[in-house]
Amino acid sequence: MTKAQRQEIDLLGNAVEYEVQHSSDATEPRIDVDIHGVTVVVPQGEEVQPTELLKENAVWVVDKQRNYDTYRDQVPDRTFEAGESFPFLGQDRKLVIEPRQKHGVDEDSVRLRKSAVEQSSIKQVLENFYRSRAREYLTERTDHFAEQMGVEYEKLELRNQRTRWGSCSTGGTISLNWRLIMAPADVVDYLVVHELAHLTEQNHGRDFWRLVGEYVLEYKEKAEWLEQNSAKLIFSKEDL
Fold first, then answer.
1. For residue 170, which phi and psi values (nearest 5 degrees)?
2. Whether the model pTM is above 0.70
3. SS3 call for 157
4. pLDDT tens by residue, 98-108
5. Which Pfam families does the UniProt entry name for this protein (predicted)?
6. Does 68 or 226 have the greater pLDDT score?
7. Which of 13, 180, 202, 208 is the most buried (most CB within 10 A)?
8. Which residues contact 136 (CB under 8 A, 6 or more apart)?
9. Is residue 124 part of a domain?
10. What CATH number is given to the structural domain containing 204?
11. Given 43, 74, 105, which residue is the final one in a domain?
């Protein structure tokens, strides 16, 4: 994926900065708006006028950008020290640093090996542990639902985006955000099913949502939870 320098456009009286990315994975032009700004994603080799796409979707872009301004204010101000609480599968758990053979997590705490922290930092060791657990958990849930849904995916990739939670490429690659390991288990399952459903239904039409609903009850509530609580799935303001 190639990037261009940031540019600026006036949308509905608002100065909006954006960048253009050319992607070999993209099948159609799209606009991504996240905590870091606005990105126009264009399929490799396709000629698209980013300014026209932005103008056509001006109301949506401006609205999403305002939402992310609010989002920044909602990110927890956690500190990376023993005694702080971090979510794991939807439950806050106290961070414990102690002499032990390996990292672990139980009902009330996330326990990090003291020697590893001394060689690095609490933040880095904590993120590495979450990524490792996310790889195990998300692989298990993806395999579970792929079998139930009768679909096959090519591979599972873990991403490190702040607010984009998943995607499914035309080649069958499922991408999931490692930060999902902080969300409740039923929300994780919704995201997994959502992306696997794209192997059968490429768009978000009626058939797509019917398919999702077969495997995740009350999926709208799960999507709404993620929309309203995604800021909680950031370690701290330092992590933005």
1. -65, -20
2. yes
3. strand
4. 999 999 999 99
5. YgjP-like
6. 226
7. 180
8. none
9. yes
10. 3.30.2010.10
11. 74
